Amino acid sequence: MLSPLANLTYRHLFAAQVLSLLGTGLATVALGLLAFDLAGADAGAVLGTALAIKMIAYVGIAPVAGAFVHLVPRRSLLVALDLLRAAVALALPFVTEIWQVYVLIFVLQTGSAAFTPTFQATIPDILPEEAEYTKALSLSRLAYDLEALASPAIAAALLGLVGFHWLFAGNALGFVASAALVLTVVLPSPKPPATQEGAWGRITRGARIYLATPRLRGLLALNVTVAMAGAMVIVNTVVIVRVGFGLGAAELGWTLAAYGAGSMVAALAVPRLLDGVMTDRTAMMAGAGLLVAGLLLGLLVPSWSMLLPLWMLLGFGNGLVLTPSGRLLRRSAHAGDRPALFAAQFALSHACWLIAYPVAGRFGAMAGMPATFLILVVLGAMGLVAAILLWPRDDAAEVEHIHDRLPPGHAHLGDVSPDPTGAVRHSHAFVIDDLHQRWPR
């Protein structure tokens, strides 16, 4: 499980990720307190708008960044984005108007929308062996889950000693430390895209590859299921625990911890499951099935003691779907197209969350928790059924296909001879590119 950390470059990048995540977690707590300081009882509306701005930045900026990251050395880009985010974090304590919060959040999340897909697309180049890359994906998932557990506790401890504005300084320190760690390693040079296209073609290339690849169309449908279950947890846990069961902040913390623990167990289990026990498709479909089943069981939960294992089940399903997703992206594009493809996944998955958050929040406020569980079950089940239909069970790496437009002797065809119709049939690891613009039937 820990063997990828033997690679010096990956070890430093993983440490940079952990420090950056911890800083972001501190800022999440501080942002809530800042919103209350500026808006009082309307703090929820301010945070809701800030969350919407975050998602809009992710959906709109990530594809643009993914199209042009190859023009800048990766290390320089990642360091510059870390320093940009650090500067924004340091500016947040000094805002006096709500609109200033919105502007700074947009700049901060624009930096994240460029940083995260670039970081994710770098890891397959550092760890080319699939087994090691799978373990790295599990470590990354663990980092996210540990941040969700550790950051609130660290923030609570710090708030007993200093004002909440200093939490933004902790966020900035995390970004600066991340930049310093990135500077200590040499990253692979970004490979140019596999084609020369105009600006719009580059911006949309990742999404075109994504939507033309059956396994990735299935992944998009699974993202819908993940978003519906995750939004229920993130948006409505506080309502269920505090209002539904009449419990306090400690029980709320334990409930969210149960969800994180379930996801961590999945992250630890995925490398073993994918080592000859399950295929990516089987594991991810099973995870989505657990999410749908968990939402359905939410209609029947009578007490907090039953909510804890249910939230752990949802966390496990979440981890089982999300942890292997990088493997699908890695095998679905040439190295030069990976940044654009990871950016497309980043944008499209967050578009699902942009829909799921208001659905969970609005239905929860207007119709109550049973109706909210029910609507999210329906939407999550639709995502699972779509994934089963869109992602073929026989998802072989090498696909036999026909070229009927390439001239004889083309370098891609090698010494394969055409059949009597003039078409050339051959087989290789298939990805969408300029020579293969449609998936074979």
UniProtKB/TrEMBL annotation:
SUPFAM superfamilies: MFS general substrate transporter (SSF103473)
InterPro entries, A to Z: MFS_dom (IPR020846), MFS_trans_sf (IPR036259), TM_effector (IPR010290)
Gene Ontology annotations for the cellular component aspect, listed alphabetically: plasma membrane
Pfam families associated with the record: MFS_3 (PF05977)
Keywords, comma-separated and alphabetical: Cell membrane, Membrane, Transmembrane, Transmembrane helix, Transport
Origin: domain of life: Bacteria
Membrane topology summary: Multi-pass membrane protein
Keyword Cell wall biogenesis/degradation in record: no
GO molecular function (one): transmembrane transporter activity
Coarse class of the protein's main subcellular location: membrane
TM spans (from-to): 12-34, 46-69, 76-95, 218-240, 252-270, 282-304, 372-391
Location relative to the cell: Cell membrane
PROSITE patterns listed in its UniProt record: MFS
Major facilitator superfamily (MFS) profile domain span: 9-395
Name of this chain's protein: MFS transporter
